[in-house]
Design goal:
This protein is an alpha/beta fold and 389 residues long. Helices cover 42% and strands 12% of the residues. The chain has three domains: 43 residues, no CATH class; 237 residues, 3-Layer(aba) Sandwich (Aspartate Aminotransferase, domain 2); 52 residues, no CATH class. Strands 1-9-8-7-6-2-3 form a seven-stranded mixed beta sheet, with helices on both faces. Strands 4-5 form a two-stranded antiparallel sheet. Helix 6 packs antiparallel against helix 15, helix 7 runs parallel beside helix 15 and helix 8 runs parallel beside helix 9. The radius of gyration is 23 Å and the shape is globular. The termini are far apart. Bound molecules: pyridoxal-5'-phosphate. Pyridoxal-5'-phosphate binds next to helix 8.
């Protein structure tokens, strides 16, 4: 141990460490700086050095600031449960009951049949042509993304990502040897730049990823944009990977699922229970393949990855089942409150969530008073307008 610790320090005048290759990965700078002095380090793969997760990696800088006596407001992680929201009691109870009823064994690799059915029903309502056999339950969208990307790319392939994108998309693409290629999105109007996409498609492009509603921008692609994206993907025989984890967290715009416009295009839909269903810490999500014949091979082969990792948590799957088949009013209540909190954080305007005035009719609205003078009202209205756009 002592020896290893000693080797972590640079030795002035000591032997020069071997140069690290910078080939195609984006190095983790901190690790690279530390390791360039380590002549005795055992090797790690180039692939893993390319993995970054900006949202969490940045936390080490915050810890340093805290260690120097300053307090830090953490606005980096989109976890509703850390901001005062909780899964409803019936969902918590479903988890406890599953444990008490002995559902503590390895589940089926593809997922609990009743849950796969319920997920297929939910996605069918959103427009996807899918049945329960085409649903695979995963440990969150994160694991789903890992499985999908590892199933479709070879070294040197390229995957199109919307700019800006949720960071793990690029990380998993790099981890599996491919290159992420960003395409432009008009952030004012929420429209993907189809010409830019066309210009970036090469013989190495295998997939286009869509995140709608998007993290970090919140943009939702409208029906026309989705149709154009599907058309351009089909022209070039690309997989269409669509992340709809925020499908019910929409404020003023209409959400359209990719399934509505997909017909028999090859759609791999990623979704989960972390956000809408307030189950971030329970780690559960899913992959839904539509019926496209172009997906025959991946539908057959990807489940092997589910089998090698055995299964996702069985008690949590029972809770997820309750969360989508039980009462749904908590979702609109959460979305309504989230809107008010986000408006307060971003614009400093405090309103009251409509769900506080009755879940059934109040949700989806917010309340303001007209008592302040015109100047304050006008400036607040402008801020609200900026926020919703
Ligand atoms: C777009 C997007 N996809 C996936 C995830 C992670 O999902 P999960 O918790 O299901 O792994 C997040 C989390 O912030 C996200 O913003």
């Amino acid at each position: 141990m002592e020896r290893a610790r000693e080797d972590l320090n640079p030795r002035p005048g000591g032997p020069k460490p071997p140069a690290l290759s910078m080939l195609s990965y984006v190095p983790n700078v901190k690790e690279f700086n530390r390791c360039k002095y380590l002549s005795k380090c055992l090797k790690i793969s180039k692939k893993v050095r390319g993995v970054e997760y900006a949202i969490r990696d940045i936390v080490s800088a915050a810890r340093e600031v805290e260690n120097n006596g300053k307090s830090v407001a953490y606005l980096n992680i989109g976890d509703p449960v850390q901001f005062g929201f909780q899964p409803p009691d019936n969902v918590k109870q479903a988890l406890i009951s599953a444990i008490q009823n002995g559902e503590n064994y390895y589940g089926s690799s593809e997922g609990l049949p009743a849950l796969r059915n319920a997920i297929a029903d939910k996605e069918k309502v959103k427009g996807l042509d899918v049945n329960s056999e085409q649903i695979l339950v995963t440990n969150g969208v994160s694991e789903a993304l890992d499985m999908v990307i590892s199933s479709i790319v070879e070294d040197g392939d390229e995957v199109l990502l919307p700019g800006p994108y949720y960071p793990p998309y690029a990380s998993y693409v790099r981890l599996h040897g491919a290159t992420p290629v960003e395409f432009a999105v008009d952030l004012e109007n929420g429209i993907p730049d189809i010409d830019d996409i066309r210009s970036k498609i090469t013989s190495k492009t295998v997939a286009i990823c869509l995140i709608s509603p998007n993290n970090p921008t919140g943009l939702i692609f409208n029906e026309n944009s989705l149709k154009q994206l599907v058309d351009v993907a089909n022209e070039h025989d690309l997989y269409i990977i669509c992340d709809e984890i925020y499908d019910q967290i929409v404020y003023d715009e209409k959400f359209i699922g990719i399934g509505k416009v997909a017909k028999d295009s090859p759609i791999i839909l990623l979704n989960g229970f972390s956000k809408v269903h307030l189950m971030t810490g329970w780690r559960i999500g899913y992959i839904a393949f539509n019926n496209s014949p172009k997906l025959d091979l991946i539908r057959e082969n990807l489940p092997k990855l589910a089998r090698v990792r055995i299964s996702s948590s069985l008690p949590v799957q029972h809770a997820a089942l309750e969360s989508i088949t039980g009462p749904q009013n908590y979702v609109s209540e959460f979305v309504s409150k989230e809107f008010v909190l986000e408006l307060l954080k971003q614009k400093g305007v405090l309103t009251v969530h409509g769900s506080g005035f009755g879940e059934k009719y109040g949700s989806g609205h917010f309340r303001i008073v007209f008592l302040p003078n015109m100047e304050i009202l006008e400036s607040s209205m402008n801020k609200i307008e900026e926020f919703v756009h």
